[in-house]
Specification:
CATH superfamily: Vaccinia Virus protein VP39
Shape: globular
Number of helices: 10
CATH topology: Rossmann fold
CATH class: Alpha Beta
Largest sheet: 8 strands, mixed
Distance between the termini: 32 Å
Strand content: 25-35%
Bound molecules: S-adenosylmethionine
Helix content: 25-40%
Structural class: alpha/beta
Number of domains: 1
């Protein structure tokens, strides 16, 4: 306390810039380590090692029948209270497991299905055309930019994806600029707190870590829904001002 009182006049007298708290998005950098988990890329963000990306060779796994039980997509979508006009960005859409379940729920809106793997975009584009779906737009993003228009998105959904973004800080900046004021980000991640969940450690996240990283992106935690057997469903929002 006493130290603060001594430092305050110094801050005011010398420079306001150096003593002002920096926004977390600028202050936090990545750390590279040579000794790391083989499931990760050796790059750490806020103490968490980033996981390897699930390659296209794993695409069939995304469509496994058991997901209906373990990840309960219908209950997830019901819990999101989507409006028919909503614009939803499915970030890391993969083969469209969620994209094509969301599209009928937003008939006057649209689903922007973003992925960085061209093979996933080919699948998304093919299915969209074959099924004559008018409101799904596949978008080939980059590892640092989801390529979404500014202030256009009501909800950005990331299912089993956030933990493997190689540049979470840049991606979240792109997502936040694409959200409308008050727009939501929903993260669904396997619960890192639970050692009994049979998923490799780097492919899970703790709620504490997710909340820290979203706060770093300027988002406000709203709630965590715990109805899924293995995953957190965490809701954040972009401040309105
Ligand atoms: C584990 S899969 C999940 C796919 C889908 N969300 C689902 O639940 O079926 C993660 C996906 O995220 C994609 N991905 C990884 N980094 C990304 C990034 N920076 N931007 C967009 N997609 C990314 C991967 O290519 C992969 O298709």
């Amino acid at each position: 306390m006493a130290l603060r009182i001594y430092l305050l006049p110094l801050c005011l007298g010398l420079t306001l810039v150096s003593c002002a708290p920096k926004p977390l998005t600028q202050a936090v950098t990545y750390e590279e380590r040579t000794l790391h988990d083989p499931e990760g890329i050796g790059k750490f963000y806020m103490g968490r090692e980033i996981a390897n990306v699930m390659g296209f060779s794993g695409a069939a796994w995304l469509e496994r029948a058991s997901r209906e039980q373990t990840e309960q997509p219908e209950r997830v979508l019901q819990s999101l209270d989507l409006r028919p006009t909503d614009v939803v960005a499915d970030i890391g859409a993969g083969t469209g497991y969620f994209t094509f379940r969301i599209s009928p729920l937003v008939p006057q809106g649209k689903v922007l299905a973003v992925d960085v793997q061209p093979e996933m975009i080919t699948v998304l584009t093919g299915l969209t055309k074959d099924r004559h779906i008018p409101n799904v737009t596949p978008i080939l993003g980059t590892i640092t930019d989801p390529k979404l228009p500014a202030q256009s998105v009501d909800l950005a959904l990331m299912v089993d994806t956030y933990h493997e973004l190689s540049h979470p800080r840049e991606m979240m900046a792109g997502i936040v600029q694409a959200l409308k004021p008050g727009g939501r980000v929903v993260l669904i991640e396997y619960r890192g707190e639970d050692g009994n969940i049979p998923i490799k450690a780097l492919h899970k996240m703790t709620q504490e870590q997710a909340r820290r990283e979203m706060a770093g992106a300027g988002l406000v935690w709203q709630e965590t829904k715990n109805f899924l057997p293995y995953q957190h469903l965490m809701v954040f929002s972009k401040p309105t001002s």
